[in-house]
Amino acid sequence: MKTTTKKLIGFALILSLLSAFPALARGPSSEASRLQTQQSVTKLTTAEKDSLLFMREEEKLARDVYIELYKTWNMNIFKNISSSEQQHMDTILKKINLFGLTDPSLSGIGSFTNSALQDLYNKLIYQGSLSYNDALTVGATIEDKDILDLTNAIKGTNNLALKTTYQNLMEGSKNHLRAFVGSLKNQGLEYTPQFISQDLFDAILGV
Question: What is the per-residue burial (b if ≥16 Cβ within 10 Å, else e) of 69-92?
Answer without folding.
Answer: bbeebeeebbeebbebbbebbebb
